[in-house]
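Holo model, NAP. Inputs:
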Amino acid sequence: MKIVILGAGGRLGAALMREYREKYDLAGFNHAQLDVANLDDVRGKLGAMSFEVLINAAAFTNVDACETERDRAFLINAEAPGVLAEICNEKDAKLIHFSTDYVFDGEKRAPYTEEDQANPVSAYGESKLAGEKNVLTADDRHLIVRVSWVFGPDRPSFVDAMIKRAQQDEKIDAISDKFSTPTYTHDIAEVLARVLDDWSRRAPGGLGAGRLHGILHFANAGKCTWQEYAQWALDCCRDAGVFLRGRTVGALKLSEMTRLRQGSGGQAPWVARRPVYSVLSTAKYTELTGTAPRAWREAVNDYITRFYSKK
Ligand SMILES: NC(=O)c1ccc[n+]([C@@H]2O[C@H](COP(=O)([O-])OP(=O)(O)OC[C@H]3O[C@@H](n4cnc5c(N)ncnc54)[C@H](OP(=O)(O)O)[C@@H]3O)[C@@H](O)[C@H]2O)c1
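Output:
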């Protein structure tokens, strides 16, 4: 099965490249190799290739920058995915496109299902939702995988920033009133491999028999705040013998991020609004596969054991 991955230098794209290298006939483009904002280049380069699956992990992911560079956000996160879907249609190929829990407004207090109404509160969320619609308008057999709070070894994320701060400072804090679920790139890669294998076998009755298309939520199981996430990461580090100065994560309120706009605190100020609660329901995933994602605490512990305890 010939697979092409876009965004191959990103946190998720690089993980997929690494995990699939031995398994599939793989080609990848990082940002420098293919700028998806250049739609002519996208059509030229991908149009000249043959592949059965295109995985789009390229995105303008800086939530605050999307607010101030709205046109660029829509070009990369919305228009480009539509063009990718059309290219896939011409080749009778499937597109797997990643989206986000930030398509929701965060007003719910139970996990969001694929059927829940999206209502983004930021330009990033709006542009990602428009991208989903463009992909599915081109062909509703394509697959959109919404993920949340992605972490992994290929590019630092929140959890790595917290560990780094705890290695430098005794006092660290994180937001205690915003909820979602950390999701390990390794686990996303495993899930997608099941989808790809199923598609390649085209087994009747399996996932590839046309049932797995449209929108699918995938996240590790459970929910937490950023404070709980960071505290668990530090606890895992302590168990793994990683040196830390700070061992307890203090609580920071979402409303305090507004004060950071005036220049206090050690974090970058927020421009965009974020959903307060964006836990994704994985009930559809479990129904389709017969398996549940592993718990986020287990996934974070696995990550820290593998990538920090050896440092
Ligand atoms: N990270 C999260 O917590 C999270 C949560 C929910 C959903 N997602 C979704 O998951 C997917 C993967 O995100 P990620 O975590 O891997 O983010 P990431 O590390 O920021 O990766 C995105 C990649 O896209 C590249 N890119 C940006 N603009 C591009 C362009 N014009 N042309 C080509 N490539 C471009 C980036 O390259 P440069 O860095 O060189 O610009 C980067 O390599 C995205 O669809 C994102 O919306 C992520």
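Residues 216 and 284 are 7 Å apart (CA to CA). Residues 261-265 have pLDDT under 50 and may be disordered.
Archived with the compound record.
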